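Assemble and predict.
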Amino acid sequence: MDRRHSIRVWHRGTWTREEDQVLISCIEAHGAKKWSSIARKAGLKRSGKSCRLRWLNYLRPDIKRGNITEEEEDLIIRLHKLLGNRYFYFFSACLMWSLIAGRLPGRTDNEIKNYWNKIVKKKMQKSTGLAHCHSLNTQPCTENIAMLDEIKEADSCNIDPNAFMEIEMEENFNWSNSLTDVDNNLVIEAAAGNWMVRELSPPFICSFDDLLGSEDALFYYN
DNA sequence: AAAGCGCTCAACCGCAATACC
DNA sequence: TGGTATTGCGGTTGAGCGCTT
């Protein structure tokens, strides 16, 4: 058959248990890749795209079921505040939900996105208002680097590379920018007198010393 | 009982990036 | 190197469910 002229009519709508089982069996046999090929091999009248989505968002064995916990919600809020600012205003919101989902094992980007639309957005609009999240300033950074060095020297920071690292700041420290390395691996945020150093892409782990001691100076400022 | 309404979330869409030939 | 296919993303939709009237 000449594939250039073939027309396939896909089945749409909610997946049935039978379809799920067929898809799972096919993925177990051939692996979760080449989705168009899987869709053909499975004999389901579903597009490769639809098979991929069903697997990633529902059928994967490592999917975490159940409600979003308070800790997860807090993480979502904080990461959205951070990434929402950076990506929406500077990089067209690319990768935001998948990055957030990457910090929540077993949760999918679709789930996070739905949860945000359902709960978090409402809460934030009710309380502080979203405008607060979008109030980044852009300021010169050289004096701030010097100030960070002073803080390092003062040994006033408490480092935990596996969690958010919160570092006490002087009240007059006036800088509300985000800071990332060139690979977008690390983000620092100044807010409400605290610095939060966030490791976003495993296995990248960076201590505060690594950060401030970097001679590469490969940081740029949004 | 049933009609109307709002909410949730699985699924789809369109687009951009990447892979492949 | 250019065209096509595939993958992966965020935005959006709509079926189904539960609550209210």
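Strands of chain A lie at 165-168, 178-181, 186-191, 194-199, 219-221.
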